[in-house]
Amino acid sequence: MIIKMTKSCPHNVDTIVTFTKFDTAPKFTCPTLQKIYDEYYGNDDTSLKAGEIKYRRIKIGEEFRNLLIVGFDCHREDAFAFFRKTVLKLGSKLKEINSKAAFIDKLTELVFTDDKEEIVKQFAMTMPMSEYTFDKYILDKKDKQEKEIYIYGDYVEALEEANNIAEGIKISKDLVNEPANVLTPAELAERTVHLGTKYGFDVKVYSKEECEALGMSAFLAVASASVNEPKFIVMKYKGLDSDSYEGIIGKGLCYDSGGLFLKPGRSMVEEKSDMAGAASVIGAMCAMAANKVKKNIVAVVAACENMVDGKGYRNGDILSTMNGKSVFIGSTDAEGRLTMADALTYLVRKENVDSIVEFSTLTGSCANFFGDVCAAVLTTDDDMYEKMVSKSTLTGEKYWRMPVFDEYKEMIKSDIADLKNKSLSAAGICAGLFLDQFKEDKKFMHVDIAGVAFTNAKGGSGFGVKSIYYYFNR
Q1: Which terminus of the chain is more exposed, N or C, with fewer CB under 10 A?
Q2: How far, rounded to the nearest angstrom, does the alpha carbon of residue 181 sit from its chain's CA centroid?
Q3: C-alpha–C-alpha distance, residues 300 and 347, integer Å
């Protein structure tokens, strides 16, 4: 899909779209079009329900074109969310009528926000998702012709920014939707290198041997049973003339069988998505670099597979970590926090970042509790949390904060090691608090996206790309 700004209706469009207040007659920018519409449909009932789309055919010159009238209620409390749903509905309608080129009139005349640029951005970030599919491995593909969308107005920079964010979301979705036999740690690393070159950030990939030299014993233990060697991926984007950097971590389990604490067979089908945190971070890095965000950022992904083999780590083992703390392994299926513990230490000690935000599909308990509605957040820093949730209206990505009472911290202590990776209760909270033990003196925020990152029907959601982008682009 190609979305452009225009100051007039192009001759090649087959569909004209106008947004109108749901209880008023449609108005058009073009006086000629307004006259034609009034002649054809001026006596019709013009009332629309909010979100309703009326389909008409209208003759302009010697040709008939589609006309879509979209009703919208600008006074709803959830106006941004409803706008995004309406745009997705419009995208489905354009697909239904087989439109190849559409002109969007009166879009920025909607008054649910004074920021006209934001209306354009919301439209352009949302519309491409209406036709996203992952059909790479389907032999009998439907013929596709890239759709052209023309928005009336002059908000070129806002549109370019939104197009880059939408591209980041699609990158994230594509990565999550790849099967694990294709997207191995090495393949994820190779694709990240390619994306860095394309969008403008540096990428360094550490081998297994280099990770050993860094002391990443916990990360390597998780990877030890797989024939596919781990890769530690470091992305660096410099948008400011400064030596100060902020850090991001994305959980990068390219496949998680649970190890010796084997998952049920039915649930393992979805375990290719256990790298959705990494996918969101990579997609966001592409968007931030493409839009030249004014921040210095280091993002890391400890990419590996948690498999079953005689060389693998066991329930009951004690592992060391890069920062020196020992961990009793209560479950080999609580592996993500082990990989990211070493990733945290890397950012703290090797990159000396000022703060760290981490996205991961970490716990089933958070997925069960919050479902596919929102992500869970754990942090002891109020400012970081408020900064993340303050843009939820614009991103459509919702968050809820978990408690950090001292009683929960007791649950991750071990009698024979510094920490244990599995608690018997409050699993979602304790997983976040486990990671919090490795932040040292840095500000840290853990985001659990286990319930919102992947669905059986649609695959990867791209959740987190917009949040990360808006979090750092201010």
Answers
A1: C
A2: 22
A3: 8
Per the CB < 8 A criterion, the answer to whether 418 and 218 are in contact is no
Q: Looking at residue 274, what DSSP letter applies?
A: G
* This model's pTM is above 0.85: yes
CB 331 within 8 A of CB 315: yes
Question: Which phi and psi angles does 19 have, rounded to 5°?
Answer: -90, 135
Determine contact, residues 147/102, Cβ cutoff 8 Å.
yes
Q: Which of 260, 225, 161 is nearest to 473 (CA)?
A: 161
| Closest alpha carbon to 417 in 321, 347, 349, 296 | 321
Instruction: Name which of 411, 423, 249 is nearest 334 in CA terms.
Output: 423
Which residues have a catalytic role annotated?
Answer: 263, 337
What would the pLDDT profile of 157-188 be if each residue is shown by its tens digit? 999 999 999 999 999 999 999 999 999 999 99
Bridge-based pairing state of the strands 355-360 and 459-460: unpaired
Distance CA 59, CA 65 (A): 6
Residue type, 400: W
Strand 355-360 and strand 443-448: the pairing is parallel
Residue 60 parent element (H or E): strand 53-60
Q: Is the dihedral of CA 276, 280, 94, 20 positive or negative?
A: positive
**Cα(47)–Cα(24) distance, integer angstroms:** 6
Q: Say if residues 460 and 279 touch (Cβ distance below 8 Å).
A: yes
Three-state secondary structure string covering 356-425: EEEEECCCHHHHHHHCCCEEEEEECCHHHHHHHHCCHHHHCCEEEECCCCHHHHHCCCCCCCCEECCCCC
The predicted model gives 254-282 an average pLDDT of 95
Q: Report the SS3 class of residue 56.
A: strand
The residue type found at 73 is: D
Q: How far, in Å, CA of 46 to CA of 32, rounded?
A: 19
Separation between Cα atoms, residue 386 and residue 393, nearest integer Å: 13
pLDDT at 49 over 90: no
What is the DSSP code (8-state) at residue 108? G
d(CA 113, CA 117): 10
Q: How far apart are CA 179 and CA 183, in angstroms?
A: 6
